[in-house]
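Hi, can you check this record?
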Amino acid sequence: MRWRIVPALSLPLALLLSACVSSHAQNNSGSSGNTDGKGDVTLNVGDQKGNDEAVLRAAGQLENLPYKIKWSTFTSGPPILEAVSAKAVDIGGVGNTPPVFAAAAKSHIKVVAAKHGTSDGETILVKKGSSLKKTADLKGKSVAVAQGSSAHYQLVASLAKAGLSLKDVKVNLLQPADALAAFTRGKVDAWAVWDPYTSQALRQSDARVLTTGRGVVNGLNFQVANPSSLEDKKKVKAIKDYLGRLRRAQDWVYKHPEEWAKVWGKETGLPYQVALDSVKRTNGTRVYVAVDKPAIASEQQIADTFAKLKLTPRRFSFADYVDTRFNGDLPPSTSAPRTYGKGS
């Protein structure tokens, strides 16, 4: 599996958390991390700093593990899926876009779990003083976006909803570090981006939201496993238990947003208020849902869009890269995400 290689980002680690992009920096190999639990089964888990390991530990869900979890930390979703495909890790958590690119590259992966959150963190930002008031106003304007990212899809979908296409705007394909600089200096009129970049820009870069991903993006994140791991009965049992712990940890996050924001900020370097904003806008709203037909259809739409844009090498059936055995009695993927209410 190969993605276009780009220079390493210069933003703080905090802003690399949700970089669900098709491009990734060099030096993405998983670093050796902690090992938890005991037993004769070891589950190798791919993670990003401040994500699954951190939340499981904060929520007390790494206690009394009847198997071992060996953690490997990666910079973003794409290299996690490279490791999954290569059998270097059994399972890893990623956003909604890396599985599309991995599947298009014929990687050995299976989506086994999903969580659904609000799309309020998926935004197109403009400066507070900008004359742009609605998406249609972007016609003829310059927009920064990371190529192949979830924000790239959101930009395409948002423009389409307003009766426009990428041909109607001046697209600046910039990774977040360069996009933030261009946006801050007024070199672009708008910036299509995701949380926690959204929360940080709103706090620190004189930004306001032109439009969000509501109604245009699916708000999904996934756990993705290697097919061979799913053929091992002992690992399947461990994976089922692991997914249950992730669900309970996500419940804890929703109930303890301030506590999680402190942990997340410490883990990643995010300022506490930015972390709390992101938790209440996006991170804490997520709930585990079934990987069902609507979820698959939604991912298929993303896959078809990127194929049409020639950002992926082929069209394919996303359903071929899904294993639904862990759905159990989980709610449908279309279930409403959680909310902290108005003024959160």
